Every structure is written in structure tokens, then in C-alpha cells.
Amino acid sequence: MSTVAKALGLLDLFSDTQPRLGLSDVQRLTGRDKATVHRHLSALEQMGFLEQDPISRAYRLGPAVTRLAAMRARTVPEVEMVRAVVDAVSRAAGELVHLSRVRGFDLVDIYHAEHHDHPVRVSFDAYGLPPLLATSSGKAYLAFSAPDIRERALADPRTRLASAPAPDADVLAAEMDEIAARGYACNRDQLRAGVSSVAIPVFQAQGAVFATCSIAYPTSRGGAEVEARLAHLLVQHGTDITHAMGGHVPPAVQTIWTQTYERTAP
Length: 266
Prior knowledge:
The chain is α+β, with helices and mostly antiparallel strands. The chain has helices spanning 3-9, 23-30, 34-46, 63-75, 78-93, 136-143, 147-155, 169-182, 224-244, 251-263, and strands at residues 50-52, 59-61, 96-103, 106-114, 185-188, 195-203, 209-218. A 5-stranded antiparallel sheet has the order 4-3-7-6-5, sandwiched between helices. β5 (185-188) and β6 (195-203) form a beta hairpin. The longest helix is centred in the last third of the chain and has 21 residues, at 224-244. The two termini are 33 Å apart. The mean pLDDT is 89.
């Protein structure tokens, strides 16, 4: 690994749980000698990637990180941020993969990919996405949202199909808890007969869910084994998808995804 890569790699040590690190902390986490760590930290501070508290001498992320993140957000379209990873998931799954942002209680298409040659496939309409409670995407979003968002969604008739009755609050809460515990949501013939899907949440930089990524497939493709295989793919790439959009996966969710990945391994 080059000297530049080693220095920049120190930035990954900072997180919500450890936003400030001293020289000894970085030395302990990296296992490098004190002189080398100090040289790398000093270089990062000089370039504005880190700044040092004059009293505690601890380091934290500097203004250059904020400036570059803002520039990326202004100059790189969301589609370009996620195209490569969504395409990769679609090729591995052999199914339709859809990334959507939640605005209000509406799902808005960001990017979708369909890299397969199956004669039987799920049709996709980017301009007619169904309501939250009718989709695995919507359920994945609500399961990882704050309780007040869930309550508002439950009370808003726009979150369900026009023909569907108002959901029972206790039943919905239990379903959301199950989704949060396993790290992904699933639908089987609930939105439309013959269509199933699995979905995971996508997180902002502050760790709040704001988007989702789903894989939709014909139910005839298979049952629990197919669902497990596709869930395995989603949680495998979940961190990459969130990072591509400039976000951060909360540690608790990362732990759940790791457990799910191991449990659903083929």
C-alpha cells in the first residue's frame, strides 16, 4: 500500500462513535509506529482533511472533507453515483433491481437495472410506483424510520392501495420489528399476484434512512431459497450502495446485515 493510501486510510477510522481520535488512538487502531502515524496525521491536517483540537490535541475530520462531499453532491448525478453497484447487483441476481428515494410518502425512482435474459420478467414503471405499505421498499423504509414517521404513514391513506383496508397498528408494528431484526423486507404476491420482492434501506450520512434498494422477481422463480439468495446479495452490497450515495450505515444495521449475510450464504 502506498504512503498516500495509508494516510488517507486513516480517515476511515473516524465514525459517529469515535468522531475524535488522538495520536495514541490512531496508533493503537492501525498498529503502526508512532512516528509514521504522526507524520500521516500531520499531512492530513495540513491539507485540511483533519483538524486538531488545540486543547485536547485530538483530531477530527476537517473542512476539506465537507468541501469535497458538497462538491460531489453538486457535480455528480445520483444515477452516476449508484449505476455501477446497482448494475452489479442486477447481474448477480439475474433480476430487476430498483433504487428509489422516499419523498414525503412517495417512492421516486433514482435508477433501475435489469441485466438478464429471462423470458418471464417483472415489468417496471418508474412513473407509477406503488404506495409504501404495498411494497417491500416501503416496508424497508418504514422499518428503519423513526416511530413518528411510522405513525404518520399509518394514518395517511396514500401509503396503501386504494382497495386495501387501513392496516392494524399492532400487526404493522410487529411486521416492522421483524424486518428491522433481519435487515430486509419482503413481499410475496401482496402487491400483484405473481410478483415477489426483497428490499433493504439506504442511509444518509447522518445514518437516517432516506432511500431503498429492492430486487423484484416472478414468484414462479421459487420460494424461500430464492428469497434468501436475493436477500444475501442485497445485504452483501448494502454498504456499497449507501456509501455510493454518500451515506453511512449505522453500526447496529451493519451487524444485522453481517448476521443475515452469514445466515443466507448459499
